[in-house]
Amino acid sequence: MAGFDEATALHPVGDGTFDTFDAELDGSWSIGGKLNGGYLLALLGRAACVAVGSEGHPHPVAASAHFLHAPDPGPARVEVAVLRAGRTLGQVRASLHAGGRHCVEAVVSVGALDGGTWWDGVPPVELPAIESCPRLPVQGPGFEVPLMAVVAEHLDPAVMGWAVGRPSGAGELRGWAAHAEGREPDPVSLLMFADALPPATFDLGSAGWVPTLELTCHVRAVPAPGPVVVRQRVRHVSGGRVDEECDVWDSTGRLVATGHQLAGVRIPEGQAPATRR
Fold first, then answer.
1. Cβ-defined contacts of 153-156 (< 8 Å, 24+)
2. Stretch 104-130: mean pLDDT, rounded?
3. Which residue, 24, 131, 141, 151, is most buried by CB atoms nearer than 10 A?
């Protein structure tokens, strides 16, 4: 079981120009046999920061990825191309290849995260103390979730009805999240935390794999030490796809990242949501 830094480690290939890297995709960062999309985006975000260089561009600021094929754990190749390296921002195309297939294609903007919050219209989340929130187990609803061994997720008991067959129908999950190894959160790991919670469709009464098709993450600040607070909400479900939004706050209550994703969802024919909205 690799820690986050080891699981996202990059090894330059060739002449050291930082345009091609070898990586080892770690199966610990998976759900039901499929690698977590946020973990893969974090790997590409790290590659983008390395490609542009840390001076002036040390952090991922925005990242958007399309998931073409689900890679298996094991060797992978990351290819990057610097599209622009400006004074305050750089833009990088990053591709992940594994098993002879082009698996993920991303564009990442990198820069420096500094300055305070000028205005914030995102309602904060109030949670019980982390000790009062149950930690999610590795054994999921009919399948294993190894991700829960490397990411400690403690959900608010008020949103856990789906786990006992009583989803609320609100389409929202919220709780605490942290690296189980004790590592503090940083901007690269925020790309992962923005996709770490279970699908909020569970709270609508829909269970099963929800494969990410596209994931975009905006990183707003360097997080303070301590566990982050995460809220994931369903915005819309139709045509076998779900639109979800995820907000992440650090231990001081500052909004540090927001994720938006389009994912596939399997809803049995004729099944109505737990509560009609």
1. 153/177, 153/196, 153/197, 154/130, 154/227, 155/197, 156/127, 156/128
2. 94
3. 151
Identify the band that residue 55 occupies on the pLDDT scale cut at 50, 70 and 90: confident
How far apart CA 267 and CA 238 sit, in angstroms, is 10
At 243-264, the pLDDT tens digits run 999 999 999 999 999 999 999 9
Sign of the C-alpha dihedral computed for residues 64, 184, 202 and 138 taken in this order: positive
Contact by Cβ (8 Å): 94, 79: yes
Taking the C-alpha atoms of residue 164 and residue 277, their distance in angstroms, rounded to an integer, is: 22
Distance CA 2, CA 181 (A): 9
Q: Which tokens sit at 183?
A: 């590592």
Whether 161 shows a pLDDT value over 90: the answer reads yes
Please measure the distance between the N-terminal and C-terminal CA atoms of the chain and give it in whole angstroms: 41
Buried b (16+ CB within 10 A) or exposed e, 195-214: bbbbbbbbbbbbbbebebbe
Task: Report the distance separating Cα 263 and Cα 152, nearest Å.
Answer: 23
Report the 10 Å Cβ neighbour count for 102. Answer: 13
- CA separation for the pair 168, 171 (Å, rounded): 7
Mean of the pLDDT values across residues 18-35? 95
Provide the pairing of β-strand 34-35 with 59-67: unpaired
> Where are the alpha helices (H) located in 119-263, listed in sequence order?
147-150, 187-193
CA dihedral sign of residues 122, 123, 127, 133: negative
pLDDT in tens, 6-16: 999 999 997 76
pTM above 0.85, yes or no: yes
Q: Which domains does the chain show, CATH number per domain?
A: 4-112+128-264 (2.40.160.210)
